Each structure stands twice: as structure tokens, then as C-alpha cells.
Amino acid sequence: MDLGIAGRTAIVCGASRGLGRGCAMALAREGVRVVIAARGAAELEATAEAIRRDTGAEVLAVPADVTTEAGRAALLAAAPAPDILITNAGGPPPGEFTQYTLDDWRAALEANMLAPIALIGATIQGMMSRGFGRIINITSYAVRMPIASLELSNGARAGLTGAVSALARRAAPFNVTINNLLPGPFDTDRIRANWARAAEVSGRSLEEVARDAVRAIPARRLGTPEEFGAACAFLCSVHAGFITAQNILLDGGAYPGTM
């Protein structure tokens, strides 16, 4: 299927590895000019080179911490009029609710709620004036099914979801969509770090924790960044203009609900 977005420009945050990299790669394969951002310059440039080599697409790497005004300014200077915006940031660390400080909460909100809101605010008017825009927020299935010990992530990502819901409906008449992708258990560094912590807390081996986690997924496997990227690319396509204000789970059937 031709997604109809060749020649468009996309900003992809948190793109040096994992799900962000999967999204950047998928968009580049569709002929999209990709501007990728992450904090680590060396790893980001290596990712950019890998995407160029695999797809032949134009890829610009912008080392930036988008939780800061300076980082966002650098990113937007490189891509002042994006057609596609993928917001993405690693989740805050797990912990015990009663031990979190207000600074912990502020950091979670900056990374997983306020930075995406700032980037959306800086780009959506341009998208609306041009008559095309696709905004994808990579959040978490914790929005639908809160995860114990990840309350910082639960709260910040749910806050972002609520913040953009009405905006998505206001932008829809201008062919601008806003959707949230809710990844469940994907094969990333993040899930392996969570397994390691669970093993440490429980006294079980990492292998046991990983085995039981995968057994709990109806698909009996982890998702891959490549299939996540493919789903993201479709939502950015011309064929997805009637899909907006949605929270779309990609979790191998792990969420035990009907809606």
C-alpha cells in the first residue's frame, strides 16, 4: 500500500533506539524526510546513518533534550514546518508511590506530558493552515491499565491523553489528526530494565521473570519495534484521516477488556 506521504517531513522524538527508531525507519521507507531527535549524539547519528543506508531517505539527526526549551528550539529550527510529529520519551523509573518526591513527579510531567504538549502547540497551527498533519503520541498501555510501581508514568501519560483529546477534535476539520499509540510489552531496553528490577525485588532470576511475563501475553511473544513502526506509519498516512482522538493499544492482547 502506498501511504501517500512521500516527500513529507516528520519529527520523531526519542528516535535513537527502540520504538522511536522503529517509527523513524518505517516513515523513511515511505519516502518521508525524517528529523530524528534524542539526547545521545553518537547513538543518534548511528541510527540516522542506519536509516539512510536502509532506505535512501533524507535523515537529519538533531541531538536535543526536548524536555528543555533549548532542546525543543533546536529541533524546531531544524524542522520548522513538519507534516508529522511523533512525540516519544522513555518512561520515568519504577518505584514506590510513597517514596516519590514532588521533583520526581515534576520530572515525569516534563518528559511525558509537558514536552509533547509544547511540541504540539508549536506545530499544530502550521499543520492546520497547510491542510495536513499527523501527530502521534507514543504513550503506554498503562493509560488503559495502570501498572503498579509505574505511577509516575501512569499519571503523566494519562495527563497527556486528556490534554490533547479536545484539541484533536478541533483540528480534525483541517485534515490534522492526533492519536496516541499505547505500546504494551515490546522488545526494548525499557522492558528488560523493568524485568531486571522485578527480579531484584522478588529475588527471582531474570530468566524466570522474563518467561512468566511473556507467558502472560496472549500472543506469547514480545512486540517488535518494526511492527510498532508500521502501525505508526499507517496512522500518519493519507488513508488514516478519519482516525483521530484515539488511544490504540498494541499489546498482543494483554489488556483484558472488551473496549
**Share of residues in helices:** 40-55%
- What about the largest sheet? 7 strands, parallel
Secondary-structure class:
alpha/beta
Please tell me what the overall shape is: globular
Strand order of the largest sheet: 3-2-1-4-5-6-7
Low-confidence stretches: none
Q: Please trace the helix and strand order, writing H or E for each element.
A: EHEHEHEHEHEHHHE
For the termini, the CA-CA separation is: 28 Å
Over all CA atoms, what is the radius of gyration?
Answer: 18 Å
Oligomer classification: single chain
The amount of beta strand, in percent, is 5-15%
Average pLDDT over all residues: 96
How many helix segments? 8
Total strand segments:
7
How would you describe what is shown here?
There is one protein chain. The chain is built from 8 helices and 7 strands; from the N terminus they run βαβαβαβαβαβαααβ. The chain has helices at about 20-30, 40-55, 70-80, 100-130, 150-170, 190-200, 205-215, 225-235; strands at about 10-15, 35-40, 60-65, 85, 135-140, 175-185, 245-250. Helix 1 (about 20-30) crosses helix 8 (about 225-235). With about 260 residues, the chain is of the alpha/beta class. The radius of gyration is 18 Å and the shape is globular. Helices cover about 45% and strands about 15% of the residues.
